[in-house]
Amino acid sequence: MQLTPPHKRVLSKPANLLNLRVRYSETDQMGTFYNSRALEWFECGRTEWMRHRLGLSYAALEEQGVFLPLIEAHLQFRGGARYDDLLAVSTSADLAGRARLRFDVQINQQSTGDPVVSGYTIHAFTDATHKPIRPPEWLVALMAKTAESP
Amino acid sequence: MQLTPPHKRVLSKPANLLNLRVRYSETDQMGTFYNSRALEWFECGRTEWMRHRLGLSYAALEEQGVFLPLIEAHLQFRGGARYDDLLAVSTSADLAGRARLRFDVQINQQSTGDPVVSGYTIHAFTDATHKPIRPPEWLVALMAKTAESP
Amino acid sequence: MQLTPPHKRVLSKPANLLNLRVRYSETDQMGTFYNSRALEWFECGRTEWMRHRLGLSYAALEEQGVFLPLIEAHLQFRGGARYDDLLAVSTSADLAGRARLRFDVQINQQSTGDPVVSGYTIHAFTDATHKPIRPPEWLVALMAKTAESP
Amino acid sequence: MQLTPPHKRVLSKPANLLNLRVRYSETDQMGTFYNSRALEWFECGRTEWMRHRLGLSYAALEEQGVFLPLIEAHLQFRGGARYDDLLAVSTSADLAGRARLRFDVQINQQSTGDPVVSGYTIHAFTDATHKPIRPPEWLVALMAKTAESP
């Protein structure tokens, strides 16, 4: 009987790992940030999560032949953010199923804590030729270890 | 007895209203389009849907003080699209609840029909100061009429 | 005596090859298009110039191992363009020196002819590993032929 | 005799005011950053130059009715920068003529000092309705004072 499936939901602790300022180029004529920018900020959140929680840059992961293309995304826009506003990006990650990685991201105003946008992205594991692969064992182990750390 | 609720789900017919080519600027180092671009293509789909199905440009709608900020988005990435690929964007729209507009978008390769990305966006109705408003009656009527047309 | 230097300035005829609409994502809070978008529109101009004047897609050129990274750009912003404005992009190209390709681009309002932005980009010829190469003879010949055509 | 023209070239000291990382969204299929991103990084350089050298955010300047739309830009691409590379952005500014502001920007790899892109942007002074205005005296005085400071 399999009590501890090899890829059970391993939930990492959320962490406020990144501050970023809204760029003028990211605003639109409504005076707030254009919606698609949120997905770029989610990417910045993932990058810093991997660097700080796994001690591994995503750039290095790709050099080892492991790619994480996005296959699904969900976003909820909860409040405005204007040019030059300082935002706080909180990201957590877990393995979702056998070959999926899920990142949950929450972006708030740094000064007031007001929510700006939250959501998640789900990623496949592929090689450089876009073929699906299983998540490397060392990465699974690394994530499990990270989830347990205080 | 209320037989015709004022904001019942008014489903417009899907329509392939727009072709667009993947720009080089929209690719990333994985060799396919960067994920956030899909939300920009969804926007192009909405713009052309309104122009062709409602006979109304979104620019004109804003001039009349009606804004449609995005409050939720969901995207499923279903296949690659490379620089210069010609894409077909199909958009449909309906009123969702009392004060929400929902657009469903499907983007496929024009030449093969292969799916690229699909999803939806949900929009609030606000005035220029970002305050929620009820959808204008003329717009509700216009959408109902559009949904009935063959 | 060298009367016809192999890489003399071969000037292609300007041509209005492309219409594009300003996307909402391309506006900023000043209400007009954000400046960097002009370089993306220049790219669209180059792409269509190559397809229509050379009968060659830039995608195909890259597949043959010829890359045209941008090494210099100049832009003059001459007038506004708002969301949904229809723009006319005119592009011409010539070989500049032994191993440079130059594109001149002019973008105007389609309806009024009012200038929006003009400028040029200069490109090197490289292989896939970013190493400089000489422009392929067939491309030089093709451009010379194009320049002579009425 | 006019010894001190009111808007002589007031050259601010260059300063390395900003580090930024290349985002995945800023790469293209050539594997380096897409060219138009440089103009967005120039904007980040201007924003931080104003905050740190003038003690004034550009957001606050706009709230006072002073806008600085870009009217000319020149860029020289001098070296690659890949995803996650840490860049150093150095910006200086001066008044150019009666009603122009010029920013010179140099972007280098933080770790090696290798040049990535350099150039300048020239800005007009306008009010919120895009009408040209003269630069506010207090801003001219502020810039002169900044230029003299060690």
Task: Name its key features.
homotetramer, 150 residues, alpha+beta, 5-stranded antiparallel beta sheet, disordered N terminus
Q: What does the model show?
A:
The structure is a homotetramer of 150-residue chains. Chain A has 150 residues and is of the alpha+beta class. Chain A contains three helices and five strands; from the N terminus they run βααββββα. The first copy, chain A, has a five-stranded antiparallel β-sheet. Mean pLDDT of chain A is 89; it is low at 1-11. Chains in contact: A-B, A-C, A-D, B-C, B-D, C-D. Chains A and B meet through helix 1 and strand 2 of A and helix 1 and strand 2 of B. Strand 2 of chain A pairs antiparallel with strand 2 of chain B.
What would you call the quaternary organization? homotetramer
Strand order of the largest sheet of chain A: 1-3-4-5-2
Q: What would the principal axes of the Cα set say about the shape of chain A?
A: elongated
Q: Largest chain interface and its two residue counts?
A: A-B, 21 and 22 residues
Poorly predicted runs of 5 or more residues of chain A:
1-11
Quick check: average pLDDT of chain A? Answer: 89
Strand content of chain A: 25-35%
**SSE pattern of chain A:** EHHEEEEH
Structural category of chain A: alpha+beta
Number of strands of chain A: 5
Helical content class of chain A: 10-25%
- Terminal Cα separation of chain A, in Å? 30 Å
Number of helices of chain A: 3
Radius of gyration of chain A: 16 Å
Q: How would a crystallographer describe the biggest sheet of chain A?
A: 5 strands, antiparallel
